[in-house]
Structure to design on (104 residues):
């Protein structure tokens, strides 16, 4: 496995954990467990940050002139990264919405 594939799998692994934690946060928020939901979201953010760091490393290499070959696995990793970020943002909003509804 080459370095590019290793980075892709690092991204996929980290953002996959982040996405799973964001989904767990939504479930906890729906059940009124807001503190646990917020903890899961914070943990999700840390995994997503690790994914972003790995991705940024690739961007820095290319910006420095290193030619990176097109790869479906990298494309998949980037797709997972953006999807997980979106899910995390929506999870935050959904938890806040559940809080508001339960206060009313």
């Amino acid at each position: 496995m080459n370095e590019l594939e290793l980075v892709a799998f690092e991204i996929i692994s980290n953002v996959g954990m982040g996405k799973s934690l964001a989904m767990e946060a939504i479930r906890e928020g729906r059940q009124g467990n807001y503190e646990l939901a917020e903890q899961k979201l914070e943990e999700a953010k840390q995994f997503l940050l690790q994914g972003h760091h790995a991705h940024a490393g690739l961007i820095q290499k290319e910006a420095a002139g290193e030619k990176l070959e097109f790869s479906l696995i990298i494309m998949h990793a980037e797709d997972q990264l953006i999807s997980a970020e979106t899910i995390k943002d929506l999870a935050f909003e959904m938890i806040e919405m559940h809080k508001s509804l339960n206060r009313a």
